[in-house]
């Protein structure tokens, strides 16, 4: 019997739920990466304000490197040379992490590119009969979720990480059709029961584009100069 034949006949929501179980080490790795970055900040190379400004980016990069080193046999592979952008080898689904803004509770907007906006404007979860098939690296016929891009919104309080995976279907209206809390082990993750978000519910408030915000501040300063 094929290794992933149990995925046949499942709808997109259930396939995502299954493949997300392989991401459970991300909680521990994110927490350890955050601790690594705090330790790095004790060197006085930059000011504390400069360190805080880059902290989320440094955690993202450190998490990517740790994942690459420690999860060599995981089906989720790093596909970006710097940041934690992962892709499932089985279904070709992608995931990338972004910090929750401590002031607004939101996560960053997509960059102003066609590819980035496509990740934040996806179709709703498909029924089983509409899911296309593709081949895994082993040549097995598997569901193709290459059009699915999850955003892992994270925050850390007192050294403990919280990560929620969102499938965002409308960046302008800030709507997600699927929200999955990521837990620290496969057994707990497999027991999660969740429902698709109500159509008009806004679960990701105040999406912000940190890169744009800093760019605007820089332009203002230059104009004043």
Keywords:
225 residues; alpha+beta; 6-stranded mixed sheet; two-stranded antiparallel sheet; 6 helices; 21% strand
Describe this structure in words.
The structure is a single chain. The chain has 225 residues and is α+β, with helices and mostly antiparallel strands. 33% of the residues lie in helices and 21% in strands. The protein is built from six helices and eight strands; from the N terminus they run H-H-H-E-E-E-H-E-E-E-E-E-H-H. It has helices at 12-20, 25-40, 48-70, 114-119, 186-190, 210-224, and strands at 76-78, 85-88, 94-99, 133-135, 141-143, 149-157, 160-170, 175-182. The chain has a six-stranded mixed β-sheet, covered by helices on one side. The chain has a two-stranded antiparallel ribbon with strand order 4-5. Strand 1 and strand 2 (85-88) form a beta hairpin. Helix 2 (25-40) runs antiparallel to helix 3. The N and C termini lie far apart (69 Å). 28% of the residues are buried.
What's the structural blueprint in terms of helices and strands?
Blueprint: H1 12-20, H2 25-40, H3 48-70, E1 76-78, E2 85-88, E3 94-99, H4 114-119, E4 133-135, E5 141-143, E6 149-157, E7 160-170, E8 175-182, H5 186-190, H6 210-224
Parallel strand pairs: 3-6
Antiparallel strand pairs: 1-2, 2-3, 4-5, 6-7, 7-8
Helix pairs in contact: 2-3
